[in-house]
């Protein structure tokens, strides 16, 4: 048992409406008090945090750790270490591993490896359909029992709408949230760039808005007048936000997130065929980017995630369309989110979008600093100016378009259940 | 898009799309796309080609690139284009190596970069590259050793700059060097055409009066007008008063992709016939990058008719490719002229 005092930090906790300069006391891995010391508190360790921010540990809605199946790209140990160094204490793995997370043994494997690694907490989404093939329902109840906190078919299609509808109903029966990555298989086939002047000029196979908006509209119609919980991940289009907004007004239990890179990059960035900018859904226009930012400020999009996809170097060393999409992104989630604050987003909105809001979507008691809860938190030096660099990345995947970007604000310590898993 | 000031100059993959083609003196180093090249460079290519066109007629061979090794690196089947590159290289006295690498060979695990490294080791001076993926020529130019030059012989739907330049050469020979008064219509499958994209850039760089694209909506890429063209969906309207009509080849697979119902309907609506050509200017020329689908995009009477310059396009192709090869390898025409005397 150890008592830790974090002294005089600016504590920012959107869940508890807290933004104040004070002390935080940890007893036996849990937050014992904020402000006033508990009776008889004796600090075993005191962390001077005069000029630091203290925020809840970051919760990342989507991070691929590449294990099992793609260990040549990365593994659970390397990626959770990278995540915790960037303030992420909890992350959620999508089911498109190899083998797919469609049976309890895979869930257990991932949880066991994550526990061994002793970095960020790792949760899993189970497959919505067996093998993500879109044909048979997965054993969702068993997956939930094994620890899955939701189900998803990732970007793989469920072409048969009857199967899709039944998958929603079955998930709802077991009170499981369905995570949707809206993608029309045909409209996005072989596509690698936003349909617009850039893709037309570069001769890249375009992905129209409708590849995202048509399936969103379809799902919203399928779940109308139900109490099914659906989360739409990685939105990229302005129109998608309108659809989600309408659905929320109609009382549907829907939520949405956006990948951090979609809030900083546009299709202009691919115009030198730089494969580090190859992502799916594709980078869209300035107008979409602005709408996504506004969607966060207005609350239609509640969360920002990393959409972490580490790759080996060869995966990006090919002509643009032949490269694998995705960014190694856990280490840029917080910096890119803080940059939104520099650009006018309220600080509490930005912090909430990477802490309490994603925790709520995942149904986790996390992402806040309530007294009595586990001390999952992160200390930030808000004034530190630094340059993000490929060479300094801890992730196994060095695929980032942000190498060379300057940021203000850096994680100096991450605590999980009262233990410092990272400190500078 | 934010934060341009702190954007990286990416050390690993990206160099600027356009500057990579030019050396520090602004001279042509690689030839990857027309986009971003100045009018002066395009004119330099055309002028150089003009001098080679003369050479072709009188002497068959000049020693300009003697001792140089040029590799034709074709990942997509092509006989015609490859042959004209080969012929151009041989007329410049270079050694030519033809590599036809099928997709299956690279799927054995050897990456594109592995292939390149192997060929580089053979003391290559220039790669002429054709590949099904847009951006391949840029990718290769970004990764070859500094002394190697890269010529794009077609990458995906992106660019086919030597074809565009031989088309410009053909127009110049027929219509004169001032493109300002010309109206050029490009007809057909713009969507999948690297030729059309390069033509559009070249025509605009040479200050063409009006550039038009004509085709059904399924074959016109979105926002193509941003490249500086006027879009027409009706053939008659599109070629009205045109000085130059460029017909594009229609691939058979466009039918299966639901882009078109049938070849017959396409010909009925967009096929160029003698009768339809009446609506263009009386002295309009008809061009086609080949190979022609007779009776699909163009009627035989037109293809073989007096307005057609299709065969001279093929002939000029050699001179233009000689020009680009000699310019990128740094051998200028003045030297060539001197060398030509004792040789002839």
The DSSP helix count of chain B reads 14
CATH superfamily of the largest domain in chain B: Aspartate/ornithine carbamoyltransferase
Q: Name the poorly predicted regions of chain A.
A: none
Q: How many domains comprise the coordinates of chain A?
A: 2
Find the biggest chain interface: A-B, 43 and 40 residues
- Widest sheet: strand ordering of chain B: 7-6-5-8-9
- In terms of DSSP E residues, the strand content of chain B is 5-15%
Q: Could you tell me the strand content of chain A as a percent range? A: 15-25%
What is the ordering of alpha helices and beta strands of chain A? EEEEEEHEHEEHEHEEHEHEHEHEHHHEEE
CATH class of the largest domain in chain B reads Alpha Beta
- Spell out the helices and strands of chain B N to C: HEHEHHEHEHEHEEHEHHHEHHH
Determine the structural class of chain B based on helices, strands and strand pairing: alpha/beta
| Total of domains of chain B | 2
Q: Kindly state the mean pLDDT of chain A as a whole number?
A: 97
Morphology call of chain B:
globular
Helix content of chain A: 25-40%
Q: What is the fold named in CATH at topology level of the largest domain in chain B? A: Rossmann fold
Q: What is the 3D shape of chain A? A: globular
Q: Please name the CATH architecture of the largest domain in chain B.
A: 3-Layer(aba) Sandwich
Instruction: Kindly report the name of the CATH homologous superfamily of the largest domain in chain A.
Output: Metal-dependent hydrolases
What does this molecule look like?
The complex is a heterodimer of chains A (424) and B (344). Chain A is built from 11 helices and 19 strands. Chain A is of the alpha/beta class. In chain A, the strands form 4 sheets. In chain A, strands 1, 2, 3, 4, 5, 17, 18 and 19 form an 8-stranded mixed β-sheet that branches. A 6-stranded parallel β-sheet of chain A has the order 9-10-11-14-15-16, with helices on both faces. The mean pLDDT of chain A is 97. Chain B is an alpha/beta fold. Chain B folds into 2 domains: 4-158 and 317-343, Aspartate/ornithine carbamoyltransferase (Rossmann fold, 3-Layer(aba) Sandwich); 161-313, Rossmann fold, CATH 3.40.50. Chain B is globular, with a radius of gyration of 20 Å. The N and C termini of chain B lie far apart (58 Å). Residues 1-15 and 333-344 of chain B have low confidence and may be disordered.
